[in-house]
Amino acid sequence: MQVTVFSTKPYDRLFLDRSASQGLDPQYCESRLSLETVTLAEGSGAICAFVNDNLSEPVLERLAGYGVRLVALRSAGFNHVDLVAADRLGLRIARVPAYSPHAVAEHTIAIILALNRKIHRAYNRVREGNFALDGLLGFDLNGKTMGIIGTGKIGTVLARIAAGFGCRLLGHDLKPNPDCEALGMTYVDREEIFRRSDILSLNCPRTPDTHHLIRKDTLPLLKPGVMLINTSRGAVIDAHAAIAGLKDGTIGSLGLDVYEEEADLFFEDLSNTVLRDDVFARLLTFPNVLITGHQAFFTREALEAIAETTIANIDAFRSTGVPLHAVTMDFLAGRS
Q1: pTM over 0.85
Q2: Which residue, 44, 120, 151, 190, shows the most beta carbons closer than 10 Å to its own?
Q3: Distance of alpha carbon 55 from alpha carbon 37, whole angstroms
Q4: Active-site residue numbers?
């Protein structure tokens, strides 16, 4: 079976080749999937896509017309897929539901520590021979209240690490997670977790309910000076509101691994170009903002798991017509 793999980087090819089973014929493309590049899928029975590939109705229609029957996502999230169109066209969608919650949770902690102790600023100072400590003052994590919105696998690992630092834990989710409660987490409503959190970490999927969870009218609910961290989905934060919150001090510091308009930025080397995104450029001007380019997932263990699960999805589809981890219309109704 021929599989066209879009948005391929050298590390994708390395790990997919290691996991590929007999009879698979992967065709690697550096290009992102779009209406302009969809022709690359001609002759393939399946495609493999990543988070910033275009899987809108027009693209899916072209894929179905070429005879593609499976879209294998190399990600857990699927908010970039038009599931209604996929169902109508008879396209199967598969995902990687869990690859390494430790990778994302540990990266979240790394951002928190770097922001708090100004590691990114101290690194540059020392390289320039500046050993002054002014402006680098942090705080003890011990005794601080960490709010975690989204207490699934990643949120649970994050809670475990935060508990080790001596943080008080608040959680917010559709239902309490007993593993988090065993760590001492108290579940509260959204307004209370906003009001009480010294550090607020967003680890929730993007849904209609979480879209722009942080926005202009929710900023006043936040504890003044809160450290806000987002390693989930970019659209959970309205970047314009975040800038306003940084300017008036509502947000004391901001750590992002995702950004709502990241598709035109992340995973590419743009060091020799001018950034055309004025909002992103404005965020970069704040000394209390730390942004990484969607790298929270990027560990050897996670890439191995992503590749193995992706190949398992394709193999299951080849043998039974149903991928191992299918995304169905039930997800739209809030069921899995």
Answers
A1: yes
A2: 151
A3: 12
A4: 233, 262, 294
